[in-house]
Amino acid sequence: MSLLESLKKSEKAGVVYDADVVHELLPQKFPFAFVDEVLSLELGDGKEVQPSLVGLYHVTGEEKFFQGHFPGNPVMPGVLQVESMAQAATLLTMIAREAEVVGKRPAFMGIENCRFRNPVLPGMDLRLEVKLISVRHGIFKYAGKAFSGDKLMCEADFVAAMV
After folding, report:
1. Which of 119, 134, 139, 155 matches a 20 to 30 Å C-alpha distance to 68?
2. Is domain 3-162 classified as CATH 3.50.30.20?
């Protein structure tokens, strides 16, 4: 049975996989897990349709990083916004490319074209949209965007290997 077949689907409307499944799959654990739910998953067709995933991270305001970034004016650090997109990409890769990555963990290799468009504040839900652009010699290239509602918060292209 494949990983995809074994994953328990969420009973919550609009959610494919809930926090229990996501947190079991992610190699990152609390307090460094920045994806709470999977809202959609496209496995791709190997030709025109690229594998993609939409995840959600609930920015509660209780995260420890808010204590120092910045006192009295809390903002989610940009590097953690990129990390949340990378974690969503990890989930995508683990499910869509299971045969290639079983037993491996992600190694973040680089970020390109990164832009922070708006501050991510406590109480926001961060919608993480990632696409697997290409795979060459075990190197995975992704495009990611993070939104709060319809507002673009952050975007980046990034590269990882599964080792």
Report:
1. 155
2. no
